[in-house]
Specification:
The structure holds two protein chains of two kinds. By secondary structure, chain A is mostly beta strands. In chain A, about 0% of the residues lie in helices and about 50% in strands. In chain B, a hairpin with a 2-residue loop joins β7 and β8. The chains are: A mainly beta, B mainly beta.
Chain lengths: ~120, ~110
């Protein structure tokens, strides 16, 4: 069974940093692009960032460009999202998701259970 | 940037009804359109990919159609478990992976 398990969420002050991790299992991790998608409280889905299968190409939403960094370690089947200079508007559930294509973009399946990030003083 | 406009934002229906949700792209995206279902407190789930293809395990009462700029998700014979929020997603363009605003389907 394909599974994605996120970790690393929590409460952080504005301007602070946090790193999210996602461990994939049940599939050949290195063969697929991966993305992070977030959902603010009571709001819709917002794509945040993507990385191709080899980790050589990265993409970011304008709202996080310059503050977030996506990376992956294919030897450990792990995806990461380094979030710096966090703002209140970054408060959301962050989902890790597997893309359908190695180079992206494609459809997202499956999704992890999500990890909560709260930015507040 | 491609914009995705989903309608309606909310919809009331009854068990057994046939409902249609629409997603419109600001420019042609071929069939690079996917649909997701999200139940309260849960992660989204892929229903339809490539505008037309039903994801494995998804009931056949769900169907997708359209190409270019106009797409629809149809649920034929609503079941109690179908009451949820539905999102379209464009998987092309730059930036990629733009979602529609969502449609909340209520009883």
């Amino acid at each position: 069974e394909v599974q994605l398990l996120e970790s690393g969420g929590g409460l952080v002050h504005p301007g602070g940093s946090l790193t999210l991790s996602c461990e994939g299992s049940g599939f050949t991790f290195k063969n697929y692009a991966m993305s992070w998608v977030r959902q603010a409280p009571g709001k819709g889905l917002e794509w945040v960032s993507a990385i191709n299968n080899g980790g050589t190409d990265t993409f970011y939403a304008d709202s996080v460009k310059g503050r977030f960094t996506i990376s992956r370690d294919n030897s450990k089947n792990t995806l990461s999202l380094q979030m710096n200079n966090l703002r209140a508007e970054d408060t959301a559930i962050y989902y890790c998701t597997k893309e359908s294509e190695p180079l992206g973009p494609g459809w997202f399946d499956p999704w992890g259970q999500g990890t909560q990030v709260t930015v507040s003083s | 940037d491609i914009q995705m406009t989903q309608s309606p934002s909310s919809l009331s229906a009854s068990v057994g009804d046939r409902v249609t949700i629409t997603c419109r792209a600001s420019q042609s995206i071929g069939r690079d359109l996917n649909w997701y279902q999200q139940k309260a407190g849960r992660a989204p789930k892929l229903l339809i990919y490539g505008a037309l293809s039903l994801q494995l395990g998804v009931p056949s009462r769900f169907s997708g159609s359209g190409s270019g700029t106009d797409f629809t998700l149809t649920i034929s014979g609503l079941q109690p478990e179908d009451f949820a929020t539905y999102y379209c997603q464009c998987s092309s363009g730059m930036p990629p992976n733009i979602f529609g605003q969502g449609t909340k389907l209520e009883i």
